[in-house]
Amino acid sequence: QLQLVESGGGLVQPGGSLRLSCAASGFPFPFEDYGIGWFRQAPGKEREWVSCSSASPGRTTYADSVKGRFTFSRDNNKKMVYLQMNSLKPEDTGVYYCAAEDHYYCSAATAVTSWDSWGQGTQVTVSS
């Protein structure tokens, strides 16, 4: 059974940093054959795309709102993905989710419906 588990969320002051992790298990194909996405959802708002790493060769794209502040990385051997978040702002607050789709190259990554598998999310709160 394919499973994604996020961790690393918490409360941080504006300008601070957090590193989110997403552990994958039960994937029927090699992990490098999966596109992996990060999304976030603030209270009362729709789920918003943050970043996507394609299936091999693992090209990464970012939403304009996080470009230059967030960095996506993945360790295919460990089946782990990470989202390093720097210079955090209050508007970055929300529940952060990782998502997976096999043989996916982020062509329509911003659409929630493009992704079949989701984690349960981890809360990030940016507040003084």
Question: What can you tell me about this protein's structure?
Answer:
- This protein has 128 residues and is mainly β.
- Helix content is 0%, strand content 48%.
- It is globular, with a radius of gyration of 14 Å.
- The N and C termini lie far apart (40 Å).
Quick synopsis:
With 128 residues, the chain is mainly β. The protein is built from no helices and eleven strands.
- Percent range for helical residues? under 10%
- Assembly state (oligomeric): single chain
Q: Structural class per helix/strand content? A: mainly beta
Strand content: over 45%
- State the major sheet: 7 strands, mixed
According to DSSP, the number of beta strands is 11
Which terms summarize this structure?
128 residues; mainly beta; seven-stranded mixed beta sheet; four-stranded antiparallel beta sheet; globular
SSE topology sketch:
Blueprint: E1 3-7, E2 10-12, E3 18-25, E4 34-41, E5 48-53, E6 60-62, E7 70-75, E8 80-85, E9 94-102, E10 117-118, E11 122-126
Parallel strand pairs: 2-11
Antiparallel strand pairs: 1-3, 3-8, 4-5, 4-9, 5-6, 7-8, 9-10, 9-11
